[in-house]
Amino acid sequence: MSRKSRSWFSVDKGDLVRESSSSLFYLTLLTFPVLFEMLVGPFMSTMLALVFVLKFFNVDNPRTFSS
To answer: What DSSP state is assigned to residue 7?
Structure first.
C-alpha cells in the first residue's frame, strides 16, 4: 500500500520510531543549556568568588608573601 493511499490517521511503526527519535533529539537540544547551567553554575560562581578573594588579598603579587 502506498503512502498516499493511506488515510491521515493510519500510523506506520517506522513513522513512530522516526518521530520519537527526532523529538528526543530536539528535546535534548533544548534542555542541554538548562542542564549545563544547573550543573556548572554553582561552580562558576564559586570560582568567581575565589578570584575576587584572591584579588582582594593580592595573592598574585609574590612580594606579599616574602619574608
So the answer is: -
d(C-alpha 15, C-alpha 44), whole Å: 43
Q: What tens digit of pLDDT does each residue of 28-66 get?
A: 788 888 888 888 888 888 999 988 888 888 776 666 555
C-alpha cell at 60: 598574585
Question: CB of 46 within 8 A of CB of 52?
Answer: no
Cα separations in angstroms, 4 against 7, 8, 19, 31, 55: 8, 9, 19, 36, 70
d(CA 36, CA 32): 6
- Going by C-beta distance under 8 Å and a sequence separation of 6 or more, which residues neighbour residue 58? 64
Q: What is each CA distance from 21 to 8, 30, 31, 52, in whole angstroms? A: 21, 14, 15, 45
